[in-house]
Design a protein that fits this description.
The chain has 434 residues and is α/β, with parallel strands linked by helices. The chain folds into three domains: 4-175, 3-Layer(aba) Sandwich (Rossmann fold), CATH 3.40.50; 183-293 and 336-361, Alpha-Beta Complex (Argininosuccinate synthetase, chain A, domain 2); 368-419, no CATH class. 46% of the residues lie in helices and 18% in strands. The strands form three sheets. It has a five-stranded parallel beta sheet with strand order 3-2-1-4-5, sandwiched between helices. Strands 10-9-8-13-14 form a five-stranded antiparallel beta sheet. 35% of the residues are buried.
Length: 434
């Protein structure tokens, strides 16, 4: 009896090639596993393609709700972003896919798990670490790290020689990943950072901002403990909520990010990310936190968000640190409840009001009028104490004749008979002007 290998199957070019390649190089049976995290896919056609290509079975595992509740919402609540722009669409999905692959491998009594991540990409790290977290004993096969094929054009030729239809054409060879949260695009003109992206040819769920409606649209998001619960007064489950906002945001061209990023493996790469619904939710969530979190909590949470983004991007979801950060974030979200109204217009998102029963904004304190809780005269003593280190240092400098900083360096230069560069430049400028 042949050994069995479970393959993370998407129906795309890479995994279509991998099925015959595995059979030829490992003499094994292939159990294809499709993990539905909300990507636009014809699962019936994809399943048939896997079987026609040589897989002995193909199952589709629907985990959209799990993906939203256990992976997307924790990233959103943390405000986790990678390198200022990337809302971690692929990064949040890969750990879940890896977990499902392990579960299916155990059911199939497979000896190995295979995936189509390239040897230069981040996904190989995310898949491998996710599999290792649940099945350290399982062999991992990543053909892109071992086979002789060097490009997608060679993959198409590989299939052609075996009379297997390619699921794509050369002129459509953007490398894409899509799920409920986002769509990423790489390749073609994007490989030269000096090129402007051809958004009209590329975008799948969004319109280029210049082609968005000339009239702004307002959208209201309702949150409970940091979790989005409704849109425009209508309560929705997580999957439906994201789908609704993707449609609204995509129509206005919001959430399109062009990023040259630092990959885990050390190189830089460029991608275009479409995250219309996610961008709306991140903006709204942050607006509500500005209203509901105190200064120190918000400031520390910003630091946690940076680390969380790094961990998720780097495939370290199933780690004690990520879990601990999520526990901290959950504690901060106990009062992040309320509604946020946003304005969408030609690729932009702007705030249009927020309200919460836990708001820390107090109009009587914030206004210019003097009230019981805040007396303008109290500010003098506060500022005196707040600035005490500045006063003490100034007294020391006066008593010793020493100056610190730029003034001190200028004084030292004059004492040594030298004119600082700035002074020299100024003198020349004045002489020329005269």
């Amino acid at each position: 009896m042949k050994k069995k290998v479970v393959l993370a199957y998407s129906g795309g070019l890479d995994t279509t090639v991998i099925i015959p390649w595995l059979k030829e190089n490992y003499d094994c049976e292939i159990a294809a596993v499709c993990v539905d995290v909300g990507q636009e896919a014809d699962w019936q056609t994809i399943t048939r393609r896997a079987l026609d290509t040589g897989a002995v079975s193909c199952v589709v595992v629907d985990v959209k709700q799990t993906y939203v509740e256990n992976y997307v919402w924790p990233a959103l609540k943390a405000n986790a972003v990678y390198e200022d722009k990337y809302l971690l669409g692929t990064s949040t999905a890969r750990p879940l896919i890896a977990k499902v692959l392990v579960e299916q491998a155990r059911k199939e009594k497979a000896v190995a798990i295979a995936h189509g991540a390239t040897g230069k990409g981040n996904d190989q790290v995310r898949f491998d670490l996710g599999i290792m977290a649940f099945a350290p004993d399982m062999e991992i096969i990543a053909p892109w790290r071992t086979w002789d094929l060097k490009s997608r054009e060679e993959e198409i030729e590989y299939l052609k020689k075996r009379k297997i239809p390619a699921p794509m054409k050369k002129k459509q060879s953007y490398s894409r990943d899509d799920n409920l949260w986002h769509i990423s695009h790489e390749g073609l003109e994007l490989e030269d950072p000096s090129n402007e992206p051809l958004l009209g040819n590329m975008l799948e769920i969004s319109v280029p901002p210049e082609k968005a409606p000339n009239k702004a649209e307002y959208v209201e998001i309702e949150f409970e403990k940091g979790i989005p619960m409704g849109v425009n007064g209508r309560r929705l489950d997580g999957v439906s909520l994201i789908q609704t906002l993707n449609k609204i945001g995509g129509a206005h061209g919001v959430g399109i990010a062009d990023l040259v990023e630092n990959r885990v493996v050390g190189m830089k790469s460029r991608g275009i990310y479409e995250t219309p619904g996610g961008s709306i939710l991140y903006y709204a969530h942050q607006e509500l936190e500005h209203l509901c979190l105190d200064r120190q909590t918000y400031a520390f949470k910003q630091q946690a968000a940076l680390k969380m983004g790094e961990l998720i991007y780097g495939g370290l979801w199933f780690t004690p640190l990520r879990e601990s950060l999520s526990a901290f974030v959950d504690a901060t979200q106990r009062t992040v409840t309320g509604t946020v109204r946003l304005k969408l217009y030609k690729g932009s998102i702007s705030a249009a009001g927020a309200a919460s029963p836990y708001s820390l904004y107090n109009a009587s304190i914030a206004s210019f009028a003097t009230g019981e809780l805040y007396n303008h005269a109290d500010a003098k003593g506060f500022i005196r104490l707040y600035g005490l280190p500045i006063v003490v240092r100034a007294m020391m400098e006066k008593g010793t004749g020493r100056k610190s900083g730029a003034k001190g360096q200028a004084g030292a230069a004059q004492a040594a008979g030298k004119t600082p560069p700035e002074t020299t430049t100024d003198a020349k400028s004045k002489g020329t002007a005269g």
